[in-house]
């Protein structure tokens, strides 16, 4: 199946400069180099890439294993591609964990790499937001960098519990109503018994005490790109009731854009239900329970919580929750019915077409601490 996936990828993009892996032998060579790759250059000739080199390095890895395979159709997978097939997914997680260990070494960081990120304004290193760069001895220390002070991300309405703030620098993706059976309906989503429903209880652990707690509520999620600040914070204040880490897939849907000559991730809704993630459930009292679910995406899907994040401990809105390590990431939140949650993040002036060719809003990039939504309570 891996050989078939590589072959299908070659059909989609036959260009050797942007798709150098043409067979299984090439793939093995690619893995040897990828296991100690400093996230910046993925191909032999980086000049062929766009300036999004760090994102391209992630996307290319997954492009090779994200091709649809007939052998995997109707197997109950999110998509019929190799990266969602359990035996390969398990190996893939082991591989990206091995790469993560390399990114914890000083071999993964140098002045040239730092300068490349500094020169790219999207990383914000010229804005004075972050701790001294002398603190970064490894790539992961840079990627999980701290803010210089809390003043760099003011918390909107800190004394107003109804105001929900962005948990991270990210782009909101929208909000979905949860029905009485804890399902959400997603256009173009995974068909389960011919219906495109996902059950939000599947985001929680099998032994969670809070399955069914978010029926009739709202799901929302927001996407972090590789250049974003990758520490996440409490979007609401309250007492932690439950905390878990769940190790599953490390996957990304990827397309090759011939027109743009680059790879692009698909930020859909649904893949989160099979992905490596963590969660904490917070009791806000007046507005009920809120599930905060940092979602790993691609490599390295490392979801880490602060030591102070434990059941029974109260945290204020905006306080540190944890961090991701290398990889794009997503942050899901579940609100109970009694919260009356509404997404208030700024909408962009343009719209996009969904899988049913209906127009959907897209949102502007938001900084951690800015207003994300409002809990209006029971109406």
TrEMBL record:
Keywords: Decarboxylase, Lyase, Pyruvate, Zymogen. The keyword Lyase applies. GO terms for molecular function: phosphatidylserine decarboxylase activity. It comes from the Bacteria. GO terms for biological process: phospholipid biosynthetic process. This is Phosphatidylserine decarboxylase. The lineage of its organism: Bacteria, Pseudomonadati, Pseudomonadota, Gammaproteobacteria, Methylococcales.
């Amino acid at each position: 199946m891996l050989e078939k996936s590589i072959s299908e990828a070659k059909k989609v993009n036959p260009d050797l400069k942007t798709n150098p892996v043409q067979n299984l032998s090439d793939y093995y060579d690619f893995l040897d180099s990828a296991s100690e790759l400093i996230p910046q250059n993925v191909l032999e000739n980086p000049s062929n890439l766009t300036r999004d080199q760090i994102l391209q390095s992630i996307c290319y890895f997954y492009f090779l294993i994200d091709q649809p395979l007939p052998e995997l159709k109707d197997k109950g997978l999110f998509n019929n591609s190799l990266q969602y097939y359990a035996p390969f997914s398990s190996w893939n997680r082991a591989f990206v964990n091995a790469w993560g260990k390399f990114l914890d070494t000083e071999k993964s960081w140098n002045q040239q790499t730092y300068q490349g990120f500094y020169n790219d304004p999207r990383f914000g290193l010229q804005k004075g937001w972050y701790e001294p760069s002398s603190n970064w001895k490894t790539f992961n220390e840079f990627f999980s960098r701290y803010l210089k002070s809390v003043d760099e991300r003011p918390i909107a309405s800190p004394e107003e519990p109804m105001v929900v703030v962005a948990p991270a620098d990210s782009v909101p993706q929208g909000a979905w109503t949860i029905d009485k059976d804890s399902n959400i309906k997603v256009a173009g989503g995974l068909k389960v018994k011919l219906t495109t429903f996902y059950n939000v209880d599947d985001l929680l652990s099998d032994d969670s005490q809070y399955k069914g707690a978010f029926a009739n509520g709202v799901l929302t999620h927001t996407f972090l790109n590789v250049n974003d600040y990758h520490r996440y914070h409490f979007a609401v204040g309250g007492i932690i009731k439950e905390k878990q880490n769940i190790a599953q897939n490390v996957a990304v849907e990827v397309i090759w854009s011939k027109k743009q000559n680059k790879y692009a991730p698909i930020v859909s809704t649904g893949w989160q239900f099979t992905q490596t993630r963590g969660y904490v459930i917070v009791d806000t009292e007046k507005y009920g329970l809120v599930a905060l679910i940092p979602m790993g995406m691609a490599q390295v899907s490392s979801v880490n919580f602060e030591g102070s994040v434990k059941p029974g401990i109260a945290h204020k809105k905006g306080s540190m929750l944890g961090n991701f390590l290398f990889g794009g990431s997503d942050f899901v939140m579940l609100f109970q019915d009694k919260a009356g949650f509404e997404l208030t993040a700024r909408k962009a002036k343009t719209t996009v077409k969904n899988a049913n060719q209906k127009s959907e809003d897209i949102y502007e990039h938001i900084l951690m601490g800015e207003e994300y939504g409002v809990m209006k309570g029971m109406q």
